[in-house]
Design goal:
By secondary structure, the chain is mainly beta. Helices cover 0% and strands 30% of the residues. It is built from no helices and six strands. Strands 2, 3, 4 and 5 form a four-stranded antiparallel β-sheet that branches. It is elongated.
Length: 116
């Protein structure tokens, strides 16, 4: 049990907790793509042809999946691939999660203030 919403911390993500309050707004259920697989395209200027995952950046608008400037794969000679052309991999390798955003107004009796 959390005494108030203001006590929620980043370490609470993924945990079950209980708060007291009233739901004042709820969004529709939405899909969140947290990981997408890409393939580094082989070209005459480089590219390894290997897969790599791209994870959503929760700091960006809409949890954007930002491609790297160069391929993150390491080649057999322990050097980084220099490929810059990517194609989306198999959609079944992506990771999707449903989520819903809710806005809660804390009950006045649960926010640490006495009433009455």
């Amino acid at each position: 049990f959390k005494a108030s919403l203001s006590r929620l911390q980043a370490s609470d993500v993924g945990q079950m907790f209980q708060v007291c309050g009233t739901v004042v707004r709820a969004s529709t259920i939405q899909m969140y793509e947290s990981t997408r697989t890409y393939i580094c395209k082989k070209t005459k200027h480089g590219g390894c042809g290997k897969k790599f995952p791209v994870h959503a950046n929760v700091q960006q608008y809409n949890n954007a999946l930002s491609l790297p400037e160069t391929c993150p794969n390491v080649l057999e000679n322990n050097q980084r691939c220099r490929g810059t052309k990517f194609v989306a991999g198999d959609p079944s390798e992506s990771v999707h999660t449903d989520y819903q955003e809710i806005k809660i107004q804390e009950s006045s009796s649960s926010n640490g203030k006495k009433t009455g």
